[in-house]
Amino acid sequence: MTGKDEWHDEHGPKIELVEWQGVVEADPSMEMRSEAVANLGDGKQLIAHDETMAVWLDHDGEVHMWLHLFEGNVVGKNPQPDAIDKMHALSVVFDAKLIGDEGEHYDADGTATYPEFKVLETQKAGAMPRPWWKFW
Known about the structure:
- It is a single chain.
- The longest helix has 14 residues, at 81-94.
- A four-stranded antiparallel sheet has the order 1-4-5-6, with helices on one face. Strands 2-3 form a two-stranded antiparallel sheet. Strands 7-8 form a two-stranded antiparallel sheet.
- The chain is an alpha+beta fold and 136 residues long.
- It is extended and about 60 Å long.
- The model has no long low-confidence stretch (mean pLDDT 90).
- Helix content is 18%, strand content 26%.
- It has one domain (17-123).
- A hairpin with a 2-residue loop joins β5 (63-70) and β6 (73-75).
């Protein structure tokens, strides 16, 4: 989720930590968690500390998805369709856009619209690219 035109833009509206925390606290299905623990086996654990982390909980109170604030964007990785729905609902609260890693924009139905990428002349069928040593 981002208030910027694209999530990777350096400039534009950012979601602030206080705003993020307020939205999470107002949502009974979410809670802030500053520590995430993953069991790696053999008694080893990977522990991450981040004051911006939050979880979306299922009806049984189990973690359904982790989200965190990064560079003014709320980020969640590999969301399932229901998580995309949840993230879109949150983006409405922030007056933000839900944009995926590949630049796709998600609407309220969870449908992704992918951006049009410009085709370079050298990528067109039959185009003969110059050898690497010819730069003029």
